[in-house]
Amino acid sequence: MDVVVVGAGLAGLVSARLLAAEGHQVTLLEAGDRAGGKLFSTEVAGVRVDVGAEAMLNRRPEGVELARALGLEVEHPALTSSRIWTRGELRRLPRSLMGVPLDVDDLVDSGVVSPETVATVRAEPTLGPVVLEEGQDVSVGDLVAARFGDEVVDRLVEPLLGGVYAGNSRLLSARAAVPQLVAFAARGSLLRQAAAVPTTYDSPVFAGIAGGMGRLAEALLADVVARGVDVRFGAAASSSGRVEGRWVVDTEAGETFVGDRVLLAAPAPVQAELLASVAPDAAAALSDIEYAAMAVITLAVPHDQADGLRAIGSSGFLVPPIEGRRIKASTFSFAKWEWVRSAGEAAGLTFLRTSIGRHGEVGVLDADDATLVQFSLDDLADATGVRLAPETVHVQRWEQGLPQYAVGHVERVARIRAALPVGVQVAGAAYDGVGIPAVVASAERAVVGMLQEL
Fold first, then answer.
1. How far apart are CA 257 and CA 429, in angstroms?
2. Torsion sign (Cα): 28, 33, 37, 42
3. Rounded CA gap, 334 and 353, in Å?
4. Helices and strands (H and E) in the chain: how many
């Protein structure tokens, strides 16, 4: 079987690898000049660091298992103690499920919310279950606010969801973004079920790759090439169709690729365009999926400048939108990853990064790179009391950063898949999860569906 895979991000690479392993001939089309999508490492001040995704969930196996299968060394964060910059200071992040408090005493000690909100949280066990009917959905923010109050949403849920989805909790689907929360709520009190939620002491929450997550993309690319996959860069797919029983994909450069099957692993807008003539209902539903733009600002500062940051004893901090700051988070890479600390020390540098950009924010990302860097330095100084003067900076913009799982997303995805013609499968972060393990699983599902059609 000949298969054309569109998009050489993580989903496309994994799909191509699995199909080639089954003995099929695969052509992998990529609009850009590199593979990996958001898995991207580059040199900053002579040290190679991640400027896209820098971690994956460890408790979900797909990403870690893939890395090990490719011979990569998996590393866990050296320090996982995060902070919330709220109510005038950096406060300890209390134990939670995506911001939903799981320990009232821990919440009180953190000082993140007011005494009035603490009282609301303590009363949560008196509330009855929230059972969503089949096909019914609710936003994460509305579900949490009904049980714990608006302040928990504003100061805990929003910054945590902002880190994962760059989204607004009042718009994000609870079923799609935090399905565990929906399951717990259907059984009753979340506080009473807190013991069922794993802590960071049970097993590491996150994992990375020594040398950067970008190495995962590089290893995948090398693997698919070794398996005989024909990888074409600068091949932006513009249309697809069916001719004499076979699938045809045309590119903007005027090339035509023909296969028995097509697997679309590009961002949702590209998939929508390619499906417009062959699956208009699927294309219309894909067009409804919006994306959040964002930027990652990497700072390489002289080692002695960062003593004050090291003294905080944290892997970084999150910023609730309610605080009105420009950055939404900062990762102290030097504290979180041993390999970053070692590489930095060898160069006499300390590495950290900030992220800017949430869905629906207007104007902030219109600023030029120098202004984004200044926003980062100013907010870091206000949060930590440390004024940095970086030796080198790097600004990585992600225009189609993260897909937004609006209320009704699960049903929308089901409609898309049901509307696909025989011979076409879809995969990627727009479907069943934005994290690395979820995207790997999406590719696996698409390949299994394609093979079952045979």
1. 25
2. positive
3. 10
4. 18, 22
Percentage of residues of the chain with pLDDT beyond 90: 93
Q: Which long-range contacts (CB under 8 A, 24 or more apart) does 337-343 make?
A: 337/54, 337/75, 337/77, 337/78, 337/208, 338/75, 338/78, 339/75, 339/210, 339/211, 339/212, 340/49, 341/78, 343/47, 343/48, 343/49
Buried b (16+ CB within 10 A) or exposed e, 72-91: bebbbbebbebbbbbeeebb
Selection from 35, 346, 55, 396 nearest residue 212 by Cα: 55
What are φ and ψ of residue 51, in 5° steps?
-120, 10
Cβ atoms of residues 356 and 362 within 8 Å:
no
137-191 residue pLDDT tens: 999 999 999 999 999 999 999 999 998 999 999 999 999 999 999 999 999 999 9
415 token code pair: 């409609």
Residues 314 and 156: their CA atoms lie apart, in Å, by 17
Q: Which residue has the tokens 């225009």?
A: 399
84 φ/ψ angles, rounded to the nearest 5 degrees = -115, 125
